[in-house]
Write a structure and sequence with these properties.
alpha+beta, Pathogenesis-related Protein p14a, 6-stranded mixed beta sheet, two-stranded antiparallel ribbon, 10 strands, 20% strand, Cysteine-rich secretory protein LCCL domain containing 1b, signal, CRISP-related, CAP_dom
Length: 263
């Protein structure tokens, strides 16, 4: 399966963003956090041995994102996923994944303004954001990613024969499409302050770097980000008909919030 083409050059500096990985209003929804994913952990362990440099562990007990920022990012993703237009029939509720957070943390600490690490890119989707100057909340970048919707034209089923066209009239749309990719139901992000970071040839003395990883990855070439239809009318069977704020939802008994075992 082919992937979307690389993005065009970025907007002027001040704040910048990089397109999502090319692989492959409502009430605020309560943030949900899933326990560590065994499958994703096995992927991380596999590549940890291959290239330990990017994996240098930070002291236990510290995280590269605060609990409040975690909830802000997750809530905004779910809010925006639930209000896409045209409406989505199969948009899944997004949960926080600590292994995705962990991988995002190590990449954020590498302070490299590019997608990576390269050996992980077939397993995750990724959005990057950076800014300098005055403080901005992480949701600034999340909203900016979503605002690319203004350039994106959703491909209706009759246009997909068999492949859906990718129509983007602006510099980039793939942040937006990764955010609203229906099956990308897990996210983990990290924030790091990078000193003397090279951002497309410019040295930023103090860059605030946001890395968000998604699983399963989105932005598959020839596919629409979601199915058009009445909200929750085409949810996967595993959701057993559950729906919350226009998102396929498995119910409170399935999701867990647990901050005691964070690393």
């Amino acid at each position: 399966m082919k992937h979307l083409p690389p993005p065009l050059p970025p907007p002027p500096p001040g704040w910048l963003r990089v397109a999502g990985l090319l692989l492959c209003l409502t009430q605020t929804v309560l943030s949900m956090v899933l326990p560590n994913s065994t499958h994703f952990q096995s992927i991380l362990d596999k590549y940890k041995d291959r290239d330990d440099a990017w994996w240098s562990a930070r002291p236990r007990g510290k995280r590269a994102i605060s609990e409040s920022d975690m909830h802000l990012i997750l809530d905004l993703h779910n809010k925006l996923r639930g209000q896409v237009y045209p409406p989505a029939s199969n948009m899944e509720y997004m949960v926080w994944d600590y292994e995705l957070e962990r991988s995002a943390e190590h990449w954020a600490h590498a302070c490299r303004w590019e997608h990576g690490p390269s050996h992980m890119l077939t397993q995750i989707g990724q959005n990057l954001g950076a800014h300098w100057g005055r403080d901005r909340p992480p949701t600034f970048h999340v909203q900016a990613w979503y605002d690319e919707v203004r350039y994106y034209s959703y491909p209706y089923p009759q246009e997909c024969n068999p492949h859906c066209p990718f129509r983007c009239s602006g510099p980039v749309c793939t942040h937006y499409t990764q955010m609203v990719w229906a099956t990308s139901s897990r996210i983990g992000c990290a924030i790091n302050v990078c000193y003397n970071m090279n951002v497309w040839g410019m040295i930023w003395a103090k860059a605030v770097y946001l890395v968000c990883n998604y699983s399963p990855p989105g932005n598959w070439w020839g596919h629409a980000p979601y199915k058009h239809g009445a909200p929750c009318s085409a949810c996967p069977a595993s959701y057993a008909g559950g729906c919350r704020d226009n998102l396929c939802y498995k119910g409170m008994n399935y999701y867990h919030i647990n901050f005691e075992n964070l690393v």
